[in-house]
Amino acid sequence: PIPLIIDTDPGVDDAVALMLAAASPEVDLRAVTTVFGNVPLPMTTRNAGRVLALAGRAAVPVAAGAARPLVHDRALRAEEWHGGDGLGGRASALPDPIAAPDPRGAIVVMAAVLRESAEPVTIAPIGPLTNVALLLAVHPELAPRIGRIVWMGGSLGAGNVTGAAEFNAHCDPEAAHRVLTQADVPVTVVPLDLTLRCPADPQWVAALGAGGPRGHELAQVLAHYRAAYLTHYGRDAVALHDAVAVLEAIRPGVLRTEAMPVQVACDLGPARGATVPVPGGGPDVAVALDADVDAVLADVLERVGRLG
Ligand code: BDR
Ligand code: CA
């Protein structure tokens, strides 16, 4: 199996992504590191532990990383979508983590996993890129041990925070720029343009909920997110953003990518956080532009269903 670190800010779609990884024998989930994002860091950390406990994977180490972005502090959160507790009001219904977070923190834990792994490790960040930017800055010597970085974030079209910027990019544009423009590690970007094309409809959620107690609980976690989508977009179909990226980490090549250099707008104006292809503007990243979206949704459902 591919050694995998998921860096996350749970987050409802993060929870689906964690369950997906836990259910997939193609990957060996070595650590889950957490970052501020949808809700503040203490909550994303606690939520990561709870989701792993729900998945029956409480032994996977959790370590907390950045509580704030690299340069410009900001108050942006996504509670409207993910609920005040980050898990649609269901966080306290989930089992408590068995162990406390690893006191060494995210950067040290990621570095240790990289050093100890005989195989190249995939890192799947599904939140702001702050921790990954710090890892690359503190431990450039470990870059060759990272097989690939598969990030859910950015958008080539419209954003979901501003007209230009997607949430994870907008939370820490400087970190995103650092990660997307380094040449040491192959990066795959799974942008909003594609993840919005993978909406889970009521039948999908019903099938998830009917699959067993874990699926049932995850479907409950999704309820608030569904209501927010219905209010905003007028339809009951939720984007499983982070799960799409984690599926690509599990099954390399499941998404169709195009190579292009991408820069991130870091000025404080209206374009802040925009992810912009700039021909000749740095190393190529693989941007996921297309997939058999029905097959992606069916695969996520089938896998998470294995957890019962
Ligand atoms: C991204 O923003 C977060 O709210 C989601 O968890 C996902 O990672 C989508 O723009
Ligand atoms: Ca996320």
TrEMBL record:
PROSITE patterns: IUNH. InterPro entries: I/U_nuclsd_hydro_CS, Inosine/uridine_hydrolase_dom, IUNH, Ribo_hydro-like. One of its GO terms (cellular component) is cytosol. The keyword Thylakoid does not apply. Residues 4-297 form the Inosine/uridine-preferring nucleoside hydrolase domain. The keyword Membrane does not apply. It comes from the Bacteria. GO terms for molecular function: purine nucleosidase activity; uridine nucleosidase activity. Pfam families: IU_nuc_hydro. GO terms for biological process: purine nucleoside catabolic process. Keywords: Glycosidase, Hydrolase. PANTHER family: INOSINE-URIDINE PREFERRING NUCLEOSIDE HYDROLASE, URIDINE NUCLEOSIDASE. This is Nucleoside hydrolase. It comes from Pseudonocardia broussonetiae.
